[in-house]
Amino acid sequence: MRRAIIQNLRTFRRPNPRKALKQLRINGGHVNVAFERSIANRTSSQPLQSSMRFSRRISVPLGLGVGAAGLAYFYQQRNGSASNAHASPTLATRGYSGQARATASGVPLSSLAAAGEVPEAVRKALIVDQGQLYTAEIPADQTISKETDFSGRKVLEMLTPEQASAKLRTNEESYLVGRGEGVVRYDVVQIPSNDPIEDDHVEKIVEVPSTIAAVENGKTRSDWMFWGVAKLRQTLVSYVARELNSTYKAALQDPQTTYPTAEAVDAAIKKGFVKLDHEITHESVQKVLKAQSKVVAAEILAPALSGSCALLSFYDSRSKELRVACTGDSRAVLGRRNPGTGKWTATALSIDQTGGTASEVARLQKEHPNEPHVTANGRILGGLEPSRAFGDAIYKWSKETQDKLRNSYFGRSPSKYLKTPPYVTAEPVVTTTRVDPTKGDFVVMATDGLWEMLTNEEVVGLVGQWLEKQASVKPSSTGTGWLQSWFSTQQTAELPIEHGSGSEKSGQRAPIRQQQWGLPSGQDSRFVVEDKNVATHLVRNALGGKDQEMLSALLTLPSPFSRRYRDDLTVQVIFFGEGEGNGKVELNREASATAAHEHAAAAAPKAKL
Q: Disordered: where is this region (predicted)?
């Protein structure tokens, strides 16, 4: 064994592809590899870097020997004796720049292949080293020993393009809405990064009789439609619907009003949010103190100590008004087509609420004067980024309450800057937009994971591109005919979007992942249309688009390493239009995963209030 190690070390000093290949076949030893190229865009030389710093350096031992075949992902923490040697001459590394592939010894792979040094056929590997992603190539006749040990090394198979597409589509759902109330379709998809995923979503149609809310044109009912991205799901919709129910009934019983005022509807939505958060954050404390049980405390206080952002939209089919209530940093954007240019405009319906948002900083400074650390480094008290959230009770409880819970049960010490809580609120900011179903408006709602990768204009332009592609296809039985009247079949390489100023008023922060990955902005040629589900289409292009290697690499990374490169992704796209009024909400099978097909029979798409 000692002789084998010495031989491998000599190989590093005098790189020779043929000799190294023979020794690796005979000895099956481990080779320390230092990679010179990394995953980057096609014009940038910057590596795809992690958004989190590593506390220790990392090395990548590759076990080359007789064993299981396949593509691989490697990760290992460096120990004190690890060598930062040069790469094995038999392993070629490359990035996404499209440059000539070369071995780590500097010899082009094509030259070695022509000289008979290594086989022409190669397989791909994905490597994580020092917080950066790299691709590598190994000869096709070499196998990779898949080993896992206590040092932290893990070897996983890298996804093929077909497997990457299958993973993207695992949780996609699409529904065709035939209610005749202004909504014709909505698509949903989720891609986890955390395990388990921290995002969730809800879609609900509530049939409202005329005894609760006034209607027009001789109708006996109207629809309230809810879409949301939040952990709280049905619970939040129930709280908001109850408050809306009381508000609309009160207005109906008053002969002078009939309909509630805009301010009353906004107040009802806010009240539903605040009531739910009060139950989570404050009523839980009273229950724990009354029970005097650590088991009860562990169960009841968990939601209060954790945190959740929420984005909820409420569409009233009678008024054609769409209200978006935002608590946190999820975002909703309206896409509206300009009939004169045929392009789309992007209008933010929410503003990211963080410790770095100017309007939120001004509000907090007004509520907590003479507290210079109320926001620090874009975070509340220097710790929490969202300035509005459910839970996150350590920013809401008084110091006395936190001390009492910590001494009797568990918990951490409050921030040294805590003086006049609460600093975080669950009260949402509500915006109202009148939707025009005849013009084909649509809304994209998504958690912050999507907006870290794409701008508002890119998201709306991608949906517009997808719509034009669908309109050019012959209408099918699944109901794409509603697209035909909106567009010509003319298609261009550029996204059909009218670019705005991109100021803070648009609710838009710069996509940090584009900077992290070294992607150039404004290059529409990197996008592709391959999916029947438009939400999946957005996620595909956020993770790489035409760059299949980047897409496969980002989807191959397992939790928790994937969190350094991408967040959980939950995306909803709602299409407004004048569809058939058959009263049905049906699963769109060609744009939904098999799991959704099986679930559809048991899940009722609507509910009566």
A: 498-519
Task: Work out the average pLDDT over 369-381.
Answer: 96
User: How is residue 281 annotated by DSSP?
Assistant: I
| Model confidence pLDDT, tens digit, residues 15-50 | 333 333 233 232 333 333 333 334 444 444 444 555
- pLDDT band at 129, cuts 50/70/90? low
- In Å, how far are 138, 152, 283, 329 from 72, measured between CA atoms? 10, 15, 50, 35
Calpha distance 443→509 (Å, rounded): 18
Closest among 548, 591, 543 to 569, alpha carbons compared:
543
pLDDT score recorded for residue 53: 36
Task: Specify whether the CB–CB gap between 265 and 246 falls below 8 A.
Answer: no
pLDDT average, residue stretch 494-511: 68
SS (H, E, C) 413-469: CCCCCCCCCCCCECCCEEEEEECCHHHCCEEEEECHHHHCCCCHHHHHHHHHHHHHH
Contact between 463 and 534 (Cβ < 8 Å): yes
Rounded to the nearest angstrom, the gap between the alpha carbon of residue 81 and the centroid of all alpha carbons in its chain is 39
Query: Which DSSP string do the residues of 537-595 spell out, in sequence order?
Result: HHHHHHTTTT-HHHHHHHHHPPTTGGGGT---EEEEEEEE----EEEEEEE-GGGS-HH
- Do 243 and 607 meet the contact criterion of CB atoms below 8 Å apart? no
The secondary structure element, H or E, covering residue 155 is strand 154-156
Q: CB of 322 within 8 A of CB of 443?
A: yes
Helix (H) or strand (E) holding 207: strand 201-209
Whether pTM > 0.85 for this model: the answer is: no
**If DSSP codes are grouped into helix, strand and coil, which group holds residue 356?**
coil
Residue 264's alpha-carbon distances to 261, 287, 316, in angstroms, are: 5, 32, 14
